[in-house]
Amino acid sequence: MGSEAVEEVHHDEINGYGNGGAKELGEEECKWFEEEIDKDLKLCYALNSVLCKGASEYQDIAFLDTKYFGKALVLDGKMQSTEVDEFIYHECLIHPSLLLHPNPKMVFIMGGGEGSAAREVLKHNTIQRVVMCDIDQDVVDFCRMYLTANHEAFASDRLCLVINDAKKELENREEKYDVIVGDLADPVEGGPCYQLYTKSFYENVIKPKLNYQGIFVTQAGPAGVLTHKEVFSSIYNTLKHVFKYVLAYTAHVPSFADTWGWVMASDHPFTLNAAQIDERIEDRINGELLYLNGDSLISSTTMNKSVHQSLLKETHVYTEDDARFIYGHGKAC
Q1: What is the pLDDT along the chain (333 residues), one digit of tens a residue?
Q2: Which residues of 79-109 are buried (b: 16+ CB within 10 A; e: fewer)?
Q3: Is position 183 annotated as part of the catalytic site?
Q4: 86-313 has which CATH code?
Q5: Which InterPro entries match (predicted)?
Q6: Whole-angstrom distance, CA of residue 164 vs CA of residue 120
Q7: Superfamily classification of domain 3-80
């Protein structure tokens, strides 16, 4: 996709796009974006406007200005993050692994094109270098233009921004990392990244690129009572086949209208308690976290009975030939 495919849209020119759409309802002038969660379920977000929309080589992209959640990034019709509550998702994605690591200096982010994951990593005063590798230049360009909260992160001399396939980039790099982060889009059929959730990728690419005491963490999709079997339990079980210690944790993200899941993995145990985590937050992090502290991090690892039982009983291992997908379709479909 070149710049010619990026389209700015005024408030009175909103049309459907991707797997969602903006529709005028009744006599009101308010426009709505509909995200299709399942064939029988949609979420609706009231809009002020669509800031821009287009299609890259890899996915449909839209930037919305929503009435309730502020600016929002949508990829392949799926809500990725919103201005009002993205701090919940990104604090949970980044800080647990960095706080549990004894001295993180080198971090590799797979995906993360909006810059929020890098922003959170750069809050840690131990960090010397962050490599952020996103496959889609257009997503990065959109976010650099519209997400003012991340301008400082994009300008940091500790950030190395690479546009490439994360698998190829990791394979070709000689350096190793203390923490590798999977800030990837959900695995949807035809999407750009489902292979980055597979056992072979974790085993042959991720694990060899971790330093001693290194930690891998990935977003792992919906983790609610009704949704955790889509991909969350499978990603957890797949990582258990590769690493000695695997820790799942969850948080409610309002704009997703669901509980969300993340999974950390390492060959070294996670041993800190809440008080020790709070000490590291105080010592290492510049600025104040809005969501996480020691108690909330520890409590986030406790699953309700239904999810806990599913994690224990899950047998599916994520492979290229036997993948699970979130409902919806990527651009290739």
Answers
A1: 343 344 444 433 333 333 334 343 333 456 999 998 888 899 999 999 998 888 888 888 899 999 999 999 998 888 999 999 999 999 999 999 999 999 999 999 999 999 999 999 999 999 999 999 999 998 898 888 878 889 999 999 999 999 999 999 999 999 999 999 999 988 877 766 788 999 999 999 999 999 999 999 999 999 999 999 999 999 999 999 999 999 999 999 999 999 999 999 999 999 999 999 999 999 999 999 999 999 999 999 999 999 999 999 999 999 988 888 876 655 543
A2: bbbbbebbbbbbbbbbbbbbbbbeebebbbb
A3: yes
A4: 3.40.50.150
A5: PABS, SAM-dependent_MTases_sf, Spermi_synthase, Spermidine_synt_N, Spermidine_synt_N_sf
A6: 22
A7: Spermidine synthase, tetramerisation domain (2.30.140.10)
